[in-house]
Write a structure and sequence with these properties.
Length: about 260
């Protein structure tokens, strides 16, 4: 797992599998017990890495960096973004947008089944099964306080029927879930749609234009200029199936074929 710091209050960990990203954001408050008044404060973990050893190291990484765990957020309901409770315990608070809460309720056990299938295919052993239990449904669009800061939550759709992006305004970091990936085509999964994907891209554009960094669900962190270039490529792809030059390998061609099937 690779970890980079985008801002004193933002870390991004990238899994060795599918380059799945996990963003850790801290609301900085003065901690008078810390040496020299070092910044510390409550922090949310957005999405998750995939492998057990990557999840195991997250609590230590946060503690060593002065990030005090407060809860989990997931940008959408795909299983590989929901594994934070394997790192922080089955009772760790998990916040999702209302559409994701409805999806998880309507698909009981689906995330756990998909995780088991992945683990069986790749011979991955885990110490405990994934327990989602109750989740907190967050109103989106909306705001969420972390420490003395406020996150902005923006609705997304098209990849699936659910989802949200998280804008971290003081750090100028945008976490977009499974959109704007430099390694993966726009993917129309079950419940997704071409029109909703196009609408999401346009709604993200003004945030991307403000961002210093954009964190896709899969792939390396993007600067604002490159993120805008990928957004333009993705708009063209959704509009007329124009394949981006950098995303034409065999796996992306499979995704492209499935997209066309889903779109009818």
């Amino acid at each position: 797992m690779r970890v980079v710091s985008l801002h004193p209050d933002v870390l991004v960990a990238t899994s060795a599998v599918w380059q799945t990203t996990c963003t850790i954001v801290r609301g900085t408050v003065a901690d008078t017990s810390a040496p020299d008044g070092a910044p510390a404060g409550e922090a949310f973990v957005i999405d998750s890495p995939v492998l057990p050893q990557e999840l195991d190291v997250l609590p230590t990484l946060m503690a060593q960096s002065g990030f005090h765990f407060s809860g989990l957020l997931a940008t959408h309901g795909d299983w590989d973004h929901l594994l934070g409770r394997l790192a922080f315990g089955a009772q760790a608070p998990l916040g999702v947008c209302e559409t994701t809460a409805a999806r998880l309720t309507g698909e009981p056990g689906q995330a756990q089944r998909r995780l088991r299938e992945f683990d069986q295919e790749w011979y991955v052993a885990r110490a405990a099964p994934l327990a989602l239990g109750q989740v907190q449904a967050l109103p989106v669009p909306g705001h969420l306080d972390v420490g003395d800061r406020t996150l902005e939550l923006h609705p997304t759709g098209g990849h699936t029927a659910d989802g949200m992006a998280v804008w971290i305004p003081w750090a100028r970091v945008l976490v977009v879930g499974d959109h704007l990936s430099p390694v993966e085509l726009p993917m129309l999964s079950a419940g997704g749609s071409r029109s909703a994907y196009a609408a999401t891209l346009e709604s993200l554009r003004p945030l991307v234009e403000q961002a210093d960094h954009v964190v896709p669900g899969h792939g390396e962190v993007l600067d604002g200029t490159r993120a805008l270039a990928i957004l333009r490529e993705d708009v063209a792809y959704i509009d007329d199936w124009t394949l981006p030059i950098a995303r034409r390998d065999a796996e992306q061609l499979k995704i492209h074929a499935r997209n066309q099937e889903h779109a009818g």
